[in-house]
Q: What sequence folds into this?
């Protein structure tokens, strides 16, 4: 995938140009609620009291599943795995994992956030965040 | 205080009908419900129509088949909870005295395969996060990790569903399956195999909602709506299409909140329920929701089901119609189908699947967007 | 008796926004309405969301942007009358005492070109009978034959609309057009040229509906809902998607019935209305509906409009916002847009298009399936 | 279009094999209401009191319009015209007309029902009723 322009699947989801990729969240300045992806209003307070932050790139795998048939609108390749990771800041996030199947996944294992190809389209490499087991 | 009752229910068999359009599925169900109530469209003062996949004026096009009395018709879309949301609007309209007789009808001719359009953002779909079964799989996997729920317990749910459905003419799958067949079927989303997930299909279901005095002019065979509740996802609910939730979120989650509201409204508790139809969109959901609705302690849904507590003849029979796993899910009609099933249970008309002496019944539906409806009926 | 008021309204500009999805269109409108009412989502107890073209849980996905209070959310689809149908549900929920504060929000990202999915049967579509503008054209052609309505009168309606819209930031078309340009534009369905037909587009509109006592805790700038009516097609209404009707059908037709119900509910008559937004989905409809709503005798809609009676400064100003002809029609949002416009009129906030001293205002929407909503607001 | 199998666009709309084609309507045995296409329930009485009938093949043109762009789902050819015809039995019916444009159409003119090609698909000629000005 050398030579392809790299673009995020959506602006504002993550920082991918810095050395270590980080997810961008909103944090409510009134109640401390964290939300990913970022948004303008706090889901708890319902006020526009959100500040943009990045979170730690390390978390723990809560649960996971493996998928073999492409769901509607999916532009990547099957099989793939999806998990929920809990981060020390106090938020759980859903994401695609780097593993193709669940064989080596263990609940509670350490996970780091990496940037990886989501799909290639119109000669662009679309990047997304993925959860990678820490070796 | 106005007592709100269901004077009649009807269903069009759930299945796959390439030669029928949604108008037929809906109008057959509506007509059966009206007939069951000894009424026709001319008696109806308003209608709420539940559907997900048609574009415009679908309820109008369904009910036109039964006459054009000129009454207000409103189409309602709340994913899997569309039908029960329509019932709730009807319930409120009767309760407030606005109308005496309201029709709620749901119908769907589902597209085949994974359902689309559940409200995911483009990036969720394109990267592979936009699939409802993935949420079901993750939810039950966490449950397995936390409470030791097993694949065998999941398979038992599907086994129980298919076993019961053999006797239900409204169900799509009416063939008994062995636990082995269920476990060895194609894996869709670990740990859920093909037979542990419901199939989108075609069908219709309807209920005629009245105040008691009006109903009694037409039929004595009514049941009372003791509670009709709709609640929507909060931040702590990791449900379609949420991407994040607070860590270590504590209960109550969505279904539990809806149940608590419904029990409070009815002045009843889970121990009073004799039979329940709950959102078994997958085998894991039946286990989780049986706990959320208070039928057993959190974490014990799997073992209790395996012990037969939720089968016909058990302590709290759940989805003895075959549930959504065997009926299939015509989305807009599904939760009205549940309400028809529990109405028949209370009327003693459930045939081989009758729960003896059932006096209080509960229906629970939950769907995309984070909609949870709990309806409690009493004889 | 509970007095039901609109405590705040808001719109997202109607137009074409390739870079915005329906979530943005709806949430911007909802947030503007909430801000106008000095509220936020936490104050809201229930929401009715109007949309036609999204599949599932669209209102949930819109309102999620503004917070997740867990309140009941119901999506409503009633074609062009979707927004006003949502307002009516909100009105009834407040009137009955069920809630104190309800949000009604409509939003649409319309597909381009002729609208599809209006409920036609396959054979209607495949043979060329399944197109809404065809009904509009036939209705006004019959009117021309019967009453002598002219193409110049039709052109005048479009001229008036575009002239007024120059001053409306929420309208899509804000360029004045000459009668010649309108008459010489491409003929879409005789006698309707391109500029005599509305264009489906994108937008959002919202209203916060409350009981008066609750509203007064937040704002003094409210208007009262004197009537909120929804009626549905009867046999005599040759409206989308009907294929036949009785010969020599006599009045009242759909819009006239809805208007009569609304006038009765409000204790007012057409002579009391100071300003109206009506369903000018085409120039002919504005003429016909101006008669059905009682603003002039049957058959005189064309000449009266040409004489300036329905322009700003005239006896009964109609669609001085530019109406649907100039705003464009984001179907789910359209009739809530009308309600926002007349709310501003009653509050004296309509800028260059202000009808001086407006105290009573009417909104009328009518759409596929045969839905007609009439809402009357008073200061 | 010789040799193509002729099929109606929908069963039950009309009789097309008899010498003079006729539209099939339902007539309510309780209130006399006529409906086209036929249906099981009376729109006025809301009861299943409908009897199948055919109606006269001659009526009068009430109003009409011409269409130049194909609407969604249309399988025929543009331009075409559509009209509403009033029949002596007391029913108005919407239908496609035989004329390609409105130039020769006059309100009140006599109309007869004919069978004509709606469109060709899968080597079948789909027939529909059309309104034809009586010469
Ligand atoms: Zn907060
Ligand atoms: Zn009749």
A:
């Amino acid at each position: 995938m050398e030579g392809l322009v790299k673009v995020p699947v959506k602006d504002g989801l993550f920082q991918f140009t810095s050395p270590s990729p980080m997810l961008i969240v909103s944090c409510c300045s009134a109640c401390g609620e964290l939300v990913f992806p970022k948004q303008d209003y706090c889901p708890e307070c319902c006020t526009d009291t959100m500040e943009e932050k990045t979170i730690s790139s390390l978390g723990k795998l809560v649960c996971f599943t493996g998928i073999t048939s492409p769901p509607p609108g999916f532009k990547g390749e099957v099989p793939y795995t999806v998990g929920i990771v809990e981060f020390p800041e106090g938020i759980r996030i859903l994401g695609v994992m780097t593993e193709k199947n669940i064989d080596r996944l263990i609940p509670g294992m350490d996970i780091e956030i990496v940037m990886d190809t989501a799909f290639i389209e119109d000669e662009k490499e679309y990047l997304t965040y993925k959860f990678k087991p820490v070796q | 205080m106005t007592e709100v009752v269901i004077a009649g229910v009807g269903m069009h068999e759930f299945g796959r009908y390439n030669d029928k359009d949604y108008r037929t599925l809906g109008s057959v169900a509506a007509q059966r419900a009206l007939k069951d109530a000894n009424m026709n469209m001319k008696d109806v003062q308003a209608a709420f129509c539940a559907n997900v996949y048609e574009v415009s004026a679908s309820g109008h096009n369904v009910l036109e088949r039964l006459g054009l009395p000129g009454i207000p018709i409103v189409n309602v879309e709340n994913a899997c909870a569309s039908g029960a949301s329509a019932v709730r609007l009807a319930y409120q309209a009767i309760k407030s005295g606005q109308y005496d007789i309201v029709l709620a009808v749901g119908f769907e001719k589902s597209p085949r395969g994974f359902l689309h359009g559940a409200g995911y953002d483009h990036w969720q779909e394109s990267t592979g996060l936009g699939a409802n079964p993935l949420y079901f799989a993750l939810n039950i996997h966490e449950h397995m990790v936390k409470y030791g729920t097993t694949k065998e317990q999941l398979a038992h749910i599907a086994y129980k569903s298919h076993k019961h459905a053999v006797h239900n003419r409204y169900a799509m799958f009416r063939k008994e399956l062995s636990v082995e067949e269920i476990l060895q079927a194609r894996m869709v989303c670990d740990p859920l195999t093909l037979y542990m997930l419901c199939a989108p299909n075609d069908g219709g279901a309807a209920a005629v909602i009245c105040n008691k005095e009006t109903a009694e002019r037409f039929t004595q065979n009514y049941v009372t709506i003791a509670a009709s509740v709709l609640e929507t996802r909060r931040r702590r609910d990791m449900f379609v299409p949420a991407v994040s939730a607070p860590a270590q979120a504590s209960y109550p989650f969505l279904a539990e909140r809806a149940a608590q509201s419904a029990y409070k409204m009815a002045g009843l508790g889970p121990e009073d329920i004799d039979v329940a139809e709950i959102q078994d969109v997958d085998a894991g959901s039946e286990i989780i929701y049986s706990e959320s609705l208070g039928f057993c302690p959190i974490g014990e849904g799997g073992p209790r089901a395996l012990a037969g507590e939720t089968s016909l003849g058990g302590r709290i029979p759940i989805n003895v119609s075959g549930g959504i796993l065997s009926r299939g899910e015509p989305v807009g009609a599904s939760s009205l189908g549940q309400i028809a099933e529990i109405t028949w249970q209370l009327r003693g008309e459930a045939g081989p699947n009758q729960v003896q002496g059932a006096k209080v019944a509960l229906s629970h539906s939950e769907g995309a967007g984070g909609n949870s409806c709990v309806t409690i009926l009493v004889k």
